[in-house]
Design goal:
single chain; 266 residues; alpha/beta; seven-stranded mixed β-sheet; 9 helices; Protein BIG1; transmembrane helix; Big1; membrane; endoplasmic reticulum
């Protein structure tokens, strides 16, 4: 019991750390891919070395029959951001939820090698590579009309909700430009080339989040509650619950007040 009480919190803390340093991958297409199970998603952690194979495997050979495969690199995004910044990612969530094919890998260890991902698709499908300029997305640079294309859009790091909202608008512009060229014959793979830095690794995290008004109340100056803090509180609460239950069980043990002597033999 004592050993379990010690090991369980350690295992929970390790699990929290493992899920924290991960990136998501969200892929969708208006086309129906017969090899993809509807609404498929994985909630386990995909190892970095297996990331590209895991991302591409559900599409099978049908991916090469798609005119445009758009790779969107959104550095420093985490799965929890889709819930925390739901309004900022409205267009991405709308396009993916309305798609005929949708695949989601919530946790990929560390990051996805975008160059290797683009290179793998281009090699498998003999595709043309198009680097999309986020400053001005043009439909002419996305699809040449001769062969299928891999279009790469590299977005700024997701440092704030405002940045995510701007990047969401860029993804929406990209999809509109693709539709003007090829209609619904496209697929989008959104993932990240860099995981969000853990909160404890940033020495000046609170300084960066503080406003210019130094006289403002503390709850306006700093973000004191986030996903990492919530997970830590949950682990501590579970640990305290285990300790309380253990102490209660130990306290309920009662020993006899006296022992009866053995009957004497005549």
């Amino acid at each position: 019991m004592k050993l379990l009480t010690v090991l369980l919190p350690i295992a929970l803390v390790s699990a929290v750390s493992a899920f924290e340093n991960t990136v998501p991958c969200l892929a969708w297409s208006p086309k129906r891919f017969t090899s993809v199970v509807e609404g498929s998603h994985d909630q386990y952690v995909v190892l970095q070395k297996d990331a590209i194979d895991t991302i591409l495997a559900p599409f099978g050979s049908e991916l090469c029959q798609t005119k445009v495969v758009a790779i969107v690199d959104q550095p420093e995004i985490h799965t929890s951001d889709f819930a925390q910044y739901s309004d900022a990612l409205e267009s991405i969530k709308k396009h993916s939820s309305e798609a005929a094919t949708r695949i989601q890998h919530q946790y990929i260890d560390k990051h996805v090698d975008i160059d290797q991902l683009v290179g793998r698709i281009a090699q498998l499908c003999d595709s043309t590579l198009a680097i999309v300029n986020p400053q001005g997305i043009s439909k002419d640079e996305i699809y040449s009309g001769n062969s299928n294309t891999v279009a790469l859009l590299e977005l700024p790091s997701a440092h704030s909700e405002m940045t995510l909202a701007k990047n969401d608008a860029l993804v929406d512009d990209l999809i509109k430009a693709i539709k003007e060229n090829v209609g619904d014959d496209y697929a989008v793979i959104l993932t990240s080339s860099a995981a969000k830095a853990p909160l404890h690794s940033k020495r000046s995290t609170f300084e960066k989040r503080a406003p210019y008004n130094v006289n403002a109340p503390i709850f306006q100056k700093y973000q004191l509650f986030n996903t990492g803090v919530f997970m830590a509180i949950a682990v501590v609460a579970m640990f305290i619950g285990i300790v309380v239950i253990g102490i209660t069980w130990l306290g309920s043990i009662q020993t006899p007040a006296r022992f009866d002597s053995k009957p004497k033999r005549n």
